[in-house]
Amino acid sequence: MYYNDDNINEVQKQIVSVFVERGTTVKNKIVEQSIHLFQSKGFSETSIQDIVDALGVTKGTFYYYFDSKEQLLMDIHSKYIDELLMKQQEILVDTNKTCKTKLFENVELLLKQIKTHGHQARVFFREMRNLHEENLSIIKKREKTFDYNCKKLSK
């Protein structure tokens, strides 16, 4: 195929689309593998080399997506708590449910999240101590928001 001004933009879009799709997949694989390793070995005992070796990628690939292992941990924490908050919000805005029902559904949400995201939940609660103070403060604030929303329902 010859490229000219008429089709070059379409080709560029296709190339970018492939790279974005691959990038998302690689980043997700790094996160998933890290959750598994952090859960089994602990954050401190897991090296970046352990992560990339398990995936068969280079450290350069890791650093393309994350500046540090701690940034990766923050990403794991943010995704976990943000997903909880999003699902909690869906419960809270339903005007057809009583406060008691919403509170019950929040408890059920936590239990389901632990059941379906067990490794991620363990990493979230166990490895929070490895976040730097600034990141820990961000996660704690989101966690307090979840708790506050539940307490409002119980009054």
Reading the helices and strands in chain order gives: HHHHHHH
Percentage of residues assigned to helices: over 70%
Class from helix and strand fractions: mainly alpha
Number of helices: 7
Largest sheet: none
Number of strands: 0
Structural Rg: 20 Å
Low-pLDDT parts are none
Q: Whole-number average pLDDT?
A: 87
Distance between the amino and carboxyl termini: 68 Å
Content of β-strand: under 5%
CA-based shape: elongated
Structure description:
The chain is an all-alpha fold and 155 residues long. 79% of the residues lie in helices and 0% in strands. The mean pLDDT is 87.
Question: What would you say about this model in short?
Answer:
The chain is mainly α and 155 residues long.
Attribute tags:
155 residues; mainly alpha; 7 helices
Write the layout of secondary structure elements.
Blueprint: H1 8-41, H2 48-55, H3 59-65, H4 69-92, H5 99-116, H6 118-126, H7 133-154
Helix pairs in contact: 1-2, 1-6, 4-5, 4-7, 5-6
